[in-house]
Amino acid sequence: MATIGSKVSSNNSFNSKSLTLNEFLLEAELEHYYEPFKNKLKIASVAQIKYVEEEDLSGLGMTKPEQRRLRKYFQRYFPQTYLKKIKKVIN
């Protein structure tokens, strides 16, 4: 059985620009949320996930562990820069 780390490294041939929402959710083992992301939240690309709030995900029925997994995978493809971290601390 492959661990999450090995699964990510084997699928890391995708870059964040070419990765579709469906591929991203599949990799995060959240593919059953594809339709709600697309139809309810109107998310068309992986990059748009950064605008999704915790309440939005809860409204889809996503559990806290699933939300953490989504954020973890999102951070792998769209890592925060130090400038963003500093802004977050200041605000």
Q: SS-based structural class?
A: mainly alpha
Distance between the termini: 43 Å
Q: Assembly state here?
A: single chain
Mean pLDDT: 82
As a percent range, the share of helical residues equals 40-55%
The largest pleated sheet is described as: none
Total count of strands: 0
Backbone shape = globular
Strand content: under 5%
Count of helical segments? 6
Helix-strand string: HHHHHH
Show unreliable segments.
Answer: 1-14
Rg over alpha carbons: 14 Å
Question: How would you explain this protein's 3D organization?
Answer:
With 91 residues, the protein is an all-alpha fold. The protein contains 6 helices and no strands. It has helices at residues 4-11, 21-27, 34-39, 54-59, 64-77, 82-90. The longest helix is centred in the C-terminal third of the chain and has 14 residues, at 64-77. The protein starts with a helix and ends with a helix. Mean pLDDT is 82; it is low at 1-14.
Name the descriptors:
mainly alpha, 55% helix, disordered N terminus
Helix-strand blueprint:
Elements: H1 4-11, H2 21-27, H3 34-39, H4 54-59, H5 64-77, H6 82-90
